[in-house]
Design brief:
By secondary structure, the protein is mainly alpha-helical. The chain has 10 helices and 3 strands. The protein folds into 2 domains: about 1-90, DNA polymerase, domain 1 (Orthogonal Bundle); about 105-230. The longest helix has 20 residues, at about 60-75. The two termini are about 35 Å apart.
Length: about 240
């Protein structure tokens, strides 16, 4: 059951998400539920299993509940179960600690950061990624995986497909004049590739998630000062 779900639903996910999900299934869920008819699993049994994971890490326990819920809902859709017992467990697990990503928010600090980015002397693509991070306020992963075909030049918009965002509609990001200038500066370098910011070693993959982080360190910002996620509006 879970193997079938994995084959259908994890194939198009990011590699890190697939690896993390498969690890949770094999380590935490399969040993307890792997050989049981899914319709027989109760909320009490699911909670008992998840509480065992909480002892190791609260975050993984919540991920496991979400993953189990997806599998139960798939079972309902395919006629193998009638309900999702994990829906009864909201609030039953210890709450996750909210971790905010370090971000510079005071005006003077933001001004210094923008000036440092302007004078960054590293790779042109990394500099452009830094500039767009500050201009577009998107998650680092979304920015790194920006495709040239997603840019609507006439309407000055970056149009991220709904399937890529795990949403029911496309995610539209307005492109300011400054953002368009950065993209036009990058186009002669990578415009013939799929990604706006391709990986140095393999142009068929996106830039490493360490590129922007390393650039911030080069500029003198520690992980406690500023992170790539800190550019996003909600941190």
């Amino acid at each position: 059951m879970a193997d079938e779900w994995c084959e259908r639903h994890l194939a198009e996910k990011a590699q890190s998400y697939r690896v993390r999900s498969e690890r949770i299934l094999k380590r935490d869920l399969y040993p307890i539920f792997g050989f049981r008819p899914i319709k027989e699993i109760t909320a009490v049994e699911a909670l008992s299993a998840l509480r065992g994971i909480v002892e190791r890490t609260v975050d993984i326990a919540h991920r496991a509940r979400q993953l189990a819920g997806l599998i139960f809902r798939y079972a309902i859709a395919t006629g193998r179960a009638e309900r999702d017992p994990t829906a009864d467990l909201k609030g039953a697990l210890k709450s996750k600690k909210v971790k905010h990503h370090a971000a510079i928010t005071d005006p003077l600090g933001v001004g210094r950061l923008m000036n440092d980015i302007k004078h960054y002397g590293g790779r042109p693509l990394v500099k452009a990624a830094l500039e767009l991070s500050a201009l577009l306020f998107q998650r680092p992963g979304e920015l790194r995986q920006m495709l040239w075909k997603e840019n609507n030049w006439p309407d000055s918009r970056w149009e991220i497909p709904a399937i890529k965002m795990k949403m029911d509609r496309d995610h539209i990001v307005p492109l300011s004049r400054q953002a368009l200038e950065v993209l036009k500066r990058v186009e002669p370098i990578t415009g013939h590739f799929m990604y706006v910011f391709p990986n140095e070693r393999s142009r068929t993959r996106a830039m490493s998630d360490n590129g922007i982080r390393s650039a911030l360190r080069t500029l003198g910002y520690t992980n406690q000062d500023m992170t790539p996620h800190g550019f996003k509006l909600d941190g």
